[in-house]
Amino acid sequence: MSNKRRFYITTAIPYVNGDPHLGHALEFVQADVLARHRRLRGDEVRFLSGTDDNALKNVDAAVAAGRPVGEFVAEKAQRFVDLTKPLQLSNDDFIRTSTDPRHRPGVERLWQACAEAGDLYQRDYEGLYCSGCEAFVLPGDLADGRCPEHGEPPELIVERNWFFRLSRHQGVLLDLIESGRLRIEPEHRRNEVLAFIRGGLTDFSVSRAQERARGWGIPVPDDPEQVIYVWFDALANYITALRSGSDGDDYRRWWRESDERLHVIGKGITRFHTVYWPAILISAGQSPPTTIFVHDYLTVGGQKLSKSLGTAIDPLQIIERYGADGLRWWFVRDVPRNGDADFREELLATRANELADGLGNLINRTIALVSRNHPEGVCQGVDWPTESETLRARCSELPAAIDKACAAFDVRAAATALWEVVAEANRFVSATQPWELARAGRSGNHEASEILHAVLTVLLGACHVITRELPPFLPLAAERIREALDNLDTQRGRTLFPKFEEVP
Ligand SMILES: [Zn+2]
User: How far is CA 289 from its chain centroid?
Assistant: First the structure.
């Protein structure tokens, strides 16, 4: 019997009203680590990312820039596409909601299904709208009259819209989350969502006047005066990319019949993903997601990432300076599962140098020792030196430790478990002094040669374990290390990771 599981994972699709910043890169890398980890364990994985092209704030940004919307959106969306390779992402697919031919038929079909279920109706509406959130907000959501997420006062909008009967789904949603059939992590997010649902759900608007949308977006079927609301449109990407519009094979395979449907999202859009999106799917007679992992935000010098504050750091610039290894390693080593993480360049430089000093050095030393002392390779069946006990235990426990951490979406704990093996292997080298053993062996000390043999066997074994577990975190570096180890290539061993100047 195969215990292979089928796993569908998505990032949120960012608005393209600006360039990608470090926060987007973080979410992409977190999702990538989870996807690669599952693949490493033999699971079937499909990993989707994309861009939310149809958002009204993209239209506002294009107008502000004096550019045609389509052209502006295409240019900005391309910046996100261009980030995937330098970040070493393993996404199988990337959907752009304005141009991808899979998207519109899927959105229209989802709309029709909700309409047929009796969950869509028209009504006049007057409400406060935050264009940052692309959502109507309730007075109770505001802090001092401003949106707590965007710091802007909402505007009063009066129009006739289509509404989704969310109120009708309150009991079903509560049951879905309380039963754990929809898992929301971390737990405090789950509790927030449950409290929000228990507080009573109100129907929400799912269309906008064509005029306010300046003709951008997907028209409401049979009501061309209205366009489908940004969030209804955007959330649908998770299934339209699987050709839900034509009920394709991908949709059956990766949505209806997958073991896990996981959305990785930022905390600002929790409600849309944990309440609106499952309700829409249930209304349409489709399966809701199984898991939603909510991450917190990056800050820079304690401030939000924002263009106007000058804190919107370009991930490509960081990669140019420190390589994708440096950036990915900082993300996985320093960003906690709960709570915001503050980015400072010196922290990243320290982590990048940790790779050179800790891992690069370990591999380099091991290759040098093994190639010089055992050119025919290291054989098995020797007595383990007592100093190796901790290292051997850490090595055999490592895969399970990483599995446990990744199952809890704690990427930092997973990377830390890996790093403990690297640190222990370096301690083992210091404790056993293999150079001294080699020298003694060359002057005829047979026992020293035997011990050296055992030390190098343990050491090389540890390096192989590290290399096997490294790809989710540093995929290309893992390949470089594997090649250097397989060929006992001392030249390659020396140049695995660069060192960086201390940042003042
Ligand atoms: Zn807002």
Answer: 16
Going by DSSP bridges, is the β-strand pair 6-11/44-51 parallel, antiparallel, or unpaired?
parallel
Question: Chain-wide mean pLDDT for the chain?
Answer: 94
pLDDT digits (tens, 9 = 90+) for 333-376: 999 999 999 999 999 999 999 999 999 999 999 999 999 987 56
Residues serving a catalytic function are 21, 24, 130, 133, 147, 150, 304, 307
Spell out the residues 6+ positions from residue 337 whose beta carbon is closer than 8 angstroms to its own: 186, 295, 408, 409, 410, 411, 412, 413
DSSP string, 121-158: EEEEEEEEEETTTTEEE-GGG-BTTB-TTT--PPEEEE
Q: How far apart are CA 243 and CA 239, in angstroms?
A: 7
Question: How many angstroms separate the alpha carbon of residue 151 from the centre of ligand 1?
Answer: 7
The mean per-residue pLDDT over the stretch 424-441 comes to 96
147 Cα: distance to centroid of ligand 1 (angstroms):
5
For residue 131, report the distance from its CA to the centre of ligand 1, in Å.
6
37 within 8 A of 20, measured Cβ to Cβ? no
Tokens of 251: 């949709």
Alpha carbon of 241 to those of 67, 232, 284: distances in Å? 28, 15, 17
**Ligand 1 is an ion; residues with CB less than 5 A from it:** 130, 132-133, 147, 149-150
Ligand 1: distance of its center to the CA of 148 in Å? Answer: 7
Find out whether 453 and 374 touch, Cβ atoms under 8 Å: yes
Which pTM was predicted?
Answer: 0.95
Rounded distance from Cα 465 to ligand 1 centre (Å): 46
* Integer Cα distance of 268 and 271 in angstroms: 8
DSSP string, 466-491: HHHH-TTT-HHHHHHHHHHHHTT-HH
When pLDDT is averaged across residues 93-102 and rounded to a whole number, the result is: 97
Taking 70 as the threshold, does the pLDDT of residue 381 lie above it?
no
Q: What does the alpha-carbon distance between residue 460 and residue 62 come to, in Å, rounded to a whole number? A: 56
User: How far is C-alpha 317 from the geometric centre of its chain's CA atoms?
Assistant: 20
Q: How many CB atoms lie under 10 A from the CB of residue 3? A: 7
* Half-sphere exposure (Cβ direction) of 214: Cα atoms closer than 13 Å: 13
CA end-to-end span of the chain, whole Å? 57
